[in-house]
Design a protein that fits this description.
- It is a single chain.
- By secondary structure, this protein is an alpha/beta fold.
- The protein has two domains: 22-139, Rossmann fold (3-Layer(aba) Sandwich), CATH 3.40.50.2300; 151-394, P-loop containing nucleotide triphosphate hydrolases (Rossmann fold), CATH 3.40.50.300.
- 38% of the residues lie in helices and 16% in strands.
- It is built from 17 helices and 13 strands.
- It has helices at 30-40, 56-64, 83-91, 112-117, 130-139, 164-177, 195-198, 207-211, 219-225, 254-261, 277-285, 297-313, 337-344, 356-365, 369-372, 377-390, 395-410; strands at residues 22-27, 49-54, 72-76, 99-104, 120-125, 151-157, 183-187, 227-228, 233-236, 266-271, 288-293, 321-327, 351-353.
- The strands form two sheets. It has an eight-stranded mixed sheet with strand order 8-9-7-10-6-11-12-13, with helices on both faces. A five-stranded parallel sheet has the order 2-1-3-4-5.
- Helix 1 links the parallel strand 1 (22-27) and strand 2.
- Helix 2 (56-64) packs parallel to helix 3 (83-91) and helix 6 crosses helix 16 (377-390).
Length: 422
């Protein structure tokens, strides 16, 4: 048993986080104001300062007669208001460079072209939801080179020794090789990390150099710390030494991740099994989360607890995903997959069978599973996990789908006028 098909596939709705900006929303209705305040708590707006005011465009014009404008202004339209005239008046008190988002009513008649001419950067048709506000604000900056757009994928074990690191490394390798995304693996287990061993690398620099650097790391500095593992895959390795203790504050890795988002399409975080302020922040702040568990009672309890906490902390994100690893170990009592899923209240995205010979050979040789046995079903499972986490189809399948209409036309016709089978 590999990929579970009971759960619907999610769309690739990746929203890059906003930078440190100020946003002021002027709402005309209590419902929109409540939505905007809820959006302020979204993880992607953690660095932004979003304040909510009532009164709509009229209140904004009055406020900016006396105060400078923020980076972003959100304006909710009101019935029977001449929106274009109001925007013209706002322009007389608005500072250069301020971005404007209009939250329009469902029956709004102002032509979009006229809104653009007046400097409106985005227009959202109401009634607005929390994600509409988040997406609009973040979207204003996602095209800028100075803003991070890479996807953070955090992989963590529900319990120690469940193989989360092995899965993280194989999935990252698959994302880079089969999906063609520029990716980096960040080994966050500084004392006992295994990414260097799994990729057969022994870099002299890595994550420790970045996290202990007294200066904020920039792209050039981070590039020097990376070990190349393939055409599209790099490694930010852990020192895996016990020369010092690795106690970090909650925000210790924020600057590193922000910098890596600017240059990498996908950052796979190998998160160690521990519960500290920084590991919690890493998981809550990731774009997608994969929890790796074995089919036993402790893993089931821990998975349930982690899922519940992360769902509550990320109400506007898709729920964390989980997979079951080392399933079917000889003579070991296990919880059935259906019973495990019933407790978690969702299906695992994959179940990976126990195969000590395959995984042991790969680990001892510093290879990925696909390098040891390209046709093994676990190799396909890693591809399915990679596709699910990134929202990307297999490139081979995509090319086949793209070319199929052309190939169909090129097929010779049979005597009865129908196309011959391919």
């Amino acid at each position: 048993m590999t990929e579970q098909q009971d759960e619907p596939q999610h769309t690739n709705d990746h929203i890059a986080p906003a930078p440190r900006i100020s946003v002021q929303a002027f709402c005309a209705s209590v419902a929109t104001a409540t939505t905007a305040r809820a959006a302020a708590d979204d993880r992607r707006l953690a660095k932004a300062h979003l304040s909510v005011h009532m009164g709509g465009i009229a209140a904004a014009i009055d406020a900016y007669h006396k105060a400078p404008t923020p980076n972003v202004i959100m304006l909710e339209t009101e019935p029977d208001t001449d929106l274009l005239a109001a925007l013209d008046e706002l322009a007389t008190v608005c500072d250069p460079g301020t971005r404007v988002v209009v939250l329009g009513a469902p029956g709004e008649t102002a032509p979009y072209r006229e809104l653009v001419r007046r400097g409106v950067n985005d227009y959202v048709v109401g009634p607005v939801k929390v994600l509409d506000v988040v997406r609009s604000i973040c979207g204003l900056f996602s095209s800028s080179e100075a803003v991070s757009v890479g996807r953070l994928i955090a992989v963590a074990g529900a319990k120690g020794g469940v193989g989360a690191s092995t899965i993280a490394h194989n999935v990252a390798w698959t994302i880079a090789r089969d999906l063609g995304l520029d990716s980096v693996v960040v080994d966050l287990d500084l004392a006992f990390g295994t990414a260097g061993l799994d990729y057969n690398q022994d870099p002299v620099q890595g994550i420790a150099n970045a996290v202990f650097s007294p200066e904020r790391p920039d792209s050039a500095f981070m590039e020097r710390l990376l070990a190349k593992c393939g055409d599209h895959l790099s490694l930010l390795a852990a020192p895996a030494t016990l020369d010092q203790v690795y106690d970090f504050g909650a925000e210790a890795f924020d600057a590193i991740f922000d910098t890596m988002r600017m240059t990498m399409s996908c950052i796979v975080l190998d998160v160690p099994h521990q519960w500290t302020a920084w590991t919690k922040r890493v998981l809550v702040g990731a774009d997608d989360i994969l929890i790796v568990a074995e089919p036993d009672l402790a893993n089931m309890r821990n998975t349930k607890n982690m899922m519940n906490l992360l769902k509550a902390a990320r109400p506007n994100d898709r729920p964390p995903l989980y997979c079951l690893n080392q399933v079917g170990m000889s003579k070991r009592p296990e919880i059935e997959v259906k019973d495990f899923a019933k407790t978690i209240e969702s299906q695992p995205i994959a179940t990976i069978p126990f195969d000590c010979r395959l995984f042991g050979e790969a680990a001892n040789n510093g290879q990925m599973i696909a390098e040891v046995c390209a046709r093994h079903r676990t190799t396909k499972t890693f591809l399915q996990i990679a596709q699910r986490l990134t929202g990307r189809p297999d490139l081979a399948e995509a090319r086949e789908s793209f070319l199929s209409p052309i190939l169909k036309k090129l097929q010779p016709r049979r005597s009865d006028g129908r196309r011959a089978a391919g």
